[in-house]
Amino acid sequence: MSKHFCFCIPVRFGVFLFSFISFALSALSAALGWFLLHLIDTNQLSRLETNVKDDDKAAFEASLHKYKWAVIVGSIIFTFVALVAFFGFVGSIIRNRRMVKAYSVLTILSFFLGSFASGFVLYATWSHKPFCVTVDNVKSCTESNLSTGGKIGFTVGIVFQWLIQLYIVTIIRRYYQQLEEEREYRNDFRLNPTTGGTYEAKEGLLATQGAYPYSDNQHRFGSNA
């Protein structure tokens, strides 16, 4: 039978939805990363520095030039994530086990990397240490201006986002396990995909309840049976 999440939603629809969202956000992030790299190479960072103090502007530009490699790596990673998320999206439509597996593995990996990044962001938020870079023997620093309440709200948001990502990882893994169980069933019993009478979960993205097979006049039991 089909696995579900949130009590009644098929995990296949969850993978379909989350892979589409992941693809859209990753593709957007990759595009922004490559655009930022273009601005760095062409010295056009001033296009992003509206309403920024001169000291913060200097620190911002110096940071991006010094850590240009990080922008490149981030852009490559988001591009790769977008491609694999696209595979997961297609895999959920055509029920391809290998595509869904690749998407599941990448989601687990990105979850652990994201957890590490979230921990670093929280440390930077609460450590009260400014971020400084030195370019041409000139040191420029910038630091967070969040209040204690703002930091608490930011921390709650990070934790909530982490829990949602963990749940998404679980849903994708469930769908991959469902496809594995269906494959094992077909191998064990030499059956092709059939209708709802076998184990095979052949529902659509949003499963609907079919008619009860013994509810028509030809199959009902009554006084004339």
Automatic annotation (TrEMBL):
It holds the Pfam family Tetraspanin. This is Uncharacterized protein. The chain crosses the membrane at residues 12-37, 69-90, 102-126, 152-176. It is found in: Membrane. InterPro entries: Tetraspanin/Peripherin. Its main location: membrane. It comes from Trametes pubescens. Keywords: Membrane, Transmembrane, Transmembrane helix. It is a multi-pass membrane protein. One of its GO terms (cellular component) is membrane.
